[in-house]
Amino acid sequence: MTHPLPDRYLTPVDLADLLGVPVETVYQWRRKRTGPRGFRVGRHVRFDPEDVRAWVQCQIEEAA
């Protein structure tokens, strides 16, 4: 990731924008349990920036 992550929980739209993927891809990852760990706040899904960072790092390591 070329820019720092915000100091707040990310929405699926935030995550999609950050990674340059369609928001539906974020929801597919969640359904398949292959993306970064998310959690619910009521009916809203949020992602901890530290979990996103760890997931991205894992993807980089697996690709190497």
How is this fold's topology laid out?
Elements: H1 12-19, H2 23-32, E1 38-41, E2 44-47, H3 49-63
Antiparallel strand pairs: 1-2
Helix pairs in contact: 1-2
Describe this structure in words.
The protein has 64 residues and is of the alpha+beta class. The chain has one domain. The chain is 52% helix and 12% strand. It is built from 3 helices and 2 strands; from the N terminus they run H-H-E-E-H. Strands 1-2 form a two-stranded antiparallel sheet. The two termini are 16 Å apart.
Which descriptors would you attach to this protein?
64 residues, alpha+beta, two-stranded antiparallel ribbon
Instruction: Give me the Rg, rounded.
Output: 11 Å
What structural class do helix, strand and pairing data support?
alpha+beta
Along the chain, the helix and strand elements come as HHEEH
How many domains is the backbone divided into? 1
Query: Could you tell me the number of beta strands?
Result: 2
Backbone shape: globular
Strand order of the largest sheet: 1-2
Q: Can you give the mean pLDDT?
A: 93
Number of helices: 3
Q: List the uncertain runs.
A: none
Biggest sheet architecture: 2 strands, antiparallel
What quaternary form is this? single chain
Instruction: Give the proportion of residues in helices.
Output: 40-55%
Strand content: 5-15%
Spatial gap, N to C terminus: 16 Å
